[in-house]
Every structure is written in structure tokens, then in C-alpha cells.
Write a structure and sequence with these properties.
There is one protein chain. This protein is of the alpha+beta class. The chain has a single domain, classed as 2,3-Dihydroxybiphenyl 1,2-Dioxygenase, domain 1 (Roll), CATH 3.10.180.10. It has six helices and 16 strands. The strands form two sheets. It has an eight-stranded mixed beta sheet with strand order 2-3-4-1-13-16-15-14. It is globular, with a radius of gyration of 18 Å. The N and C termini lie far apart (47 Å).
């Protein structure tokens, strides 16, 4: 069985962060992303689940967070076996704007060249490693334009995700079967892309043999999700991974806005495969997105208690 053409590219990245308010302020007010959905962690109703993205939260533009600061969760360690860095995409000639904006807001930045591109590196309030890259070939729409960021400078979506692994060769071999190919090497980095290539469809492997072992917790990425067209595609991938690699894959989990399976790849990074639909417009209009707490039917019956347990925040 060949599953290479089933994976279309990235779907979202999910991280564990500190406080809800500082998280919303950073990703919406500073980075200018849209808060497209406010719900809760379906496995812990006392914790928000924030989804940030473009105007409608298109797959490959979505960055999601769990603010776990009050839930007795340890501080994590960023290292091998994790998503090491999330890369956002902007249009050409925007990097100077972002370098100035981030520095004016007290963030330390530095540039690093990879594959012929400049990456502007910085951290969010929880210590997550982020970067921005100019890619004028990124034509994804509809972008989200905030009040103080002009259209030519907006963040378009997630460009790529850097995975730190101790054995990049073994992980790369798996990713080739999974659907990411087109190797390009630059020192300790290896670029892989799906058939659709480019922004939103790329992974970067980092040789993490000199890094500490990653420990999940505050300030770390929990998983990276990859998009497929249908749940039938997810089931084919599940069957292939279990048969060809002996990987333990979860049953289908209903996340309301998509359906998912989860598993760990060689290299120990937690992967999710998520359907592109139904999307975030199933319970809000485009104008309403992110304006109120939305719950799936199985949690709606406990809305009063759930809202009481959550710390209010200002949008």
C-alpha cells in the first residue's frame, strides 16, 4: 500500500503554554493572527483550547494552544523528539517590519540563513521557539488583516515545522513513506515537502543529537498535525503504519472541527492526521469566529460548570 499522496501537507501545530490572556495578546495583538475558535481541551474541560489562524482558520494556517499554567503542569524542555520550532510565512520585504515590531515589543530576535532564506527567530511568552520567513510564492488566502499591520506585512500562515530528532536519517526514511520527500540539505537541517510543496506543506528535520531529550510541558509543542481529505484516508494511513511499521495508532477521535488519529513516529515526535473538514464555520459565521466559547454537543450539557472553571480573558 502506498500512502504518499494521501498527506497533503500541514494542518496545525498545538502547544502547551502559560496564561490565557498573555497568549491571546501575543498571537492576536502582536502577531496579528485571528482567534478563530475558543473552546476547551476536550480531555480537560478546565483548560481553554485557542485556535489562531487566517480569516477562516484554513488548514495549514492554524496554531493552537492549551493555557495550562494553573493546572499543575511542569515546565517542559524543548529538545530531541519534539517539534522544535514553528515557522510562519510572510510576503517578500516584510522581515524588516517584523524585526522592528518584535524588538519594539521587547522581544529578542536574530536571523539565521537556511536553504537560501533568512529566518527571523524569536520566542513567545511561554518560551516556544518561533520564526518568520519571507516567501512570496505563498498565495494562501484569505489572510487576516489586523488594525495596525498592513496587508503587505501580515502573517499568512504556518510555513513549515522544524522537528528535532536524534537520528534524522531514520526519521527522513519514515517521512518519505509518509508523504514528505524532496530532500534538500543545509548543514544540520533537511527540508522535506509533500507533492504540493512550499508553504504549509513542508517539514524541516534538525539533527538533535546534541540537544537534551524533549520533555512535554509548559512552553513546548505537544504535536503537529497533517491534513488529509477524508477520514477514509486517515484509516488507510492507520492501517499502513500499523502493518508496515508496527506503530500504535489511536482510534478516530472527533475534534468537532476535524477528525483525527495520533501516533509517534521514529524519532518520537507526536503526529496527528486530521481531516481538512468540516472546519470552523460549522458553529459560527465568518464574522462570529472566536467571539464566544463553543463546545461540542457532549460538553454543552455542562456549559455552566465549564464556564465557571475557566479564567475569563479579554479578546
Amino acid at each position: 500500500m502506498n500512502i504518499q499522496n494521501l498527506i497533503k501537507g500541514l494542518h496545525h501545530v498545538t502547544a502547551t503554554v502559560n496564561e490565557a490572556q498573555e497568549d491571546v495578546d501575543f498571537y492576536t495583538r502582536l502577531l496579528g493572527l485571528r482567534l478563530v475558535k475558543v473552546t476547551v481541551n476536550f480531555d480537560n474541560e478546565k483548560v481553554y483550547h485557542f485556535y489562531y489562524g487566517n480569516k477562516i482558520g484554513s488548514p495549514s494556517t492554524i496554531f493552537t494552544t492549551f493555557p495550562y499554567i494553573d493546572q499543575v503542569v511542569r515546565k517542559g524542555v524543548i529538545g530531541a523528539g519534539q517539534v522544535y520550532e514553528t515557522v510562519f510565512s510572510v510576503k517578500a520585504d516584510s522581515l524588516a517590519f517584523w524585526e522592528k515590531r518584535l524588538k519594539e515589543n521587547g522581544l529578542e530576535t536574530h536571523k539565521e540563513s537556511r536553504f537560501g532564506f533568512d529566518f527571523l527567530l524569536f520566542e513567545d511568552p511561554s518560551g516556544l521557539k518561533l520564526s518568520i520567513i519571507e516567501d512570496d510564492s505563498d498565495k494562501r488566502e484569505p489572510v487576516w488583516v489586523s488594525a495596525d499591520i498592513a496587508n503587505e506585512n501580515v502573517i499568512i500562515g504556518i510555513h513549515s515545522v522544524v522537528l528535532a530528532v536524534e537520528d534524522p536519517g531514520e526519521t527522513a526514511s519514515f517521512l518519505h513513506d509518509f508523504g514528505y520527500t524532496s530532500d534538500k540539505n543545509d548543514g544540520k537541517f533537511t527540508l522535506l515537502e509533500t507533492a504540493e510543496k512550499g508553504a504549509g506543506n513542508s517539514l524541516i528535520l534538525l539533527d538533535g543529537s546534541g540537544l537534551p531529550k524533549g520533555i512535554n510541558g509548559l512552553g513546548t509543542v505537544h504535536h503537529v498535525a497533517h491534513r488529509v481529505d477524508s477520514i477514509e484516508d486517515s484509516l488507510r494511513i492507520k492501517a499502513y503504519l500499523e502493518d508496515a511499521y508496527g506503530i500504535s495508532v489511536t482510534e478516530i477521535r472527533d475534534r468537532k472541527y476535524f477528525k483525527s488519529i495520533y501516533f509517534r513516529i521514529p524519532g518520537n515526535v507526536l503526529f496527528e492526521v486530521a481531516t481538512s473538514g468540516p472546519g470552523f464555520l460549522v458553529d459560527e459565521t465568518v464574522e462570529e469566529l472566536g467571539s464566544s466559547l463553543k463546545l461540542p454537543d457532549w460538553q454543552e450539557v455542562r456549559r455552566d460548570q465549564i464556564e465557571k472553571d475557566l479564567v475569563p480573558f479579554i479578546r
